[in-house]
Design brief:
By secondary structure, the chain is an alpha+beta fold. It has a domain of 123 residues: Glutaredoxin (3-Layer(aba) Sandwich), CATH 3.40.30. The protein contains five helices and six strands. Strands 4-3-2-1-5-6 form a six-stranded mixed sheet, with helices on both faces. Strand 2 and strand 3 form a beta hairpin.
């Protein structure tokens, strides 16, 4: 005798237990998980307030590139490297100005990504694997936070500046002699003072 197996249509269907989660609850849980993950990641990169707001650390390196006599940092093609994190809005605006001025060939670029306790280079460079390594190379014994963006001088092996508001000013105004984009400014002269004041109030520490 041959045994017969019931067809799929004849097989008893498993009974569902419980009720599906309401859509609003699923959305709320998704937002909660995402917010918690974001706050945990950012808390390792910079401090935050009790309400979870990101507190931007004060920039520690505030040197300036210019052609002034005696200045250590001169605007030269191939001398500087910009370190940025794609998830950082302050670093992102330095990328925008670099592209608008056509400085991609004149100023090299390195990308970093978030780690559990800082930033790591997507492509390690010699002895530099993390942004903290770069800060230590530029200033041995540095104990502050390692933040982006960083404008690095490959000639002196030092950090020129890590304040995005000042980096974009340098990129926009100090490299006109080597930038393929005609010398110009993205800030109208009549509004420059007001915009600078507003930047310092709302963005610059």
């Amino acid at each position: 005798m041959t045994s017969q197996t019931p067809s799929d249509a004849e097989k008893p269907k498993a009974k569902r237990t419980g009720k599906p989660l309401p859509p609003k609850l699923i959305i709320w849980l998704g937002k909660l998980i995402w917010t918690t993950m974001w706050q945990v990641m950012m808390s390792n990169l910079a401090p935050r307030s009790k309400s979870g707001e990101y507190i931007r650390p004060s920039s520690q390196f505030r040197n300036f590139i210019s052609t002034e006599e005696g200045n250590l940092y001169l605007p030269e093609a191939g001398r500087y490297r910009l370190y940025v994190g794609m998830s950082c809005p302050w670093a992102h605006r330095t990328l925008v100005v670099r592209a608008l001025k056509g400085l991609e060939d004149a100023i090299a670029l390195s990308i970093v990504s978030p780690l559990d306790s800082g930033w790591a280079l997507d492509q390690p460079e010699a002895e530099i694997r993390t942004l903290a390594d770069l800060y230590q190379l530029g200033e041995p014994g540095y104990s502050g936070r390692s933040t982006v963006p960083v404008l690095w001088d490959t000639q002196t092996q030092t950090i020129v500046n890590n304040e995005s508001a000042e980096v974009i000013v340098m990129l926009n105004s100090e490299f006109n002699a080597i930038a393929p984009t005609p010398p110009s400014t993205s800030t109208p002269k009549r509004s420059s003072q007001k915009l600078t004041s507003g930047t310092r109030k709302f963005i610059t520490p």
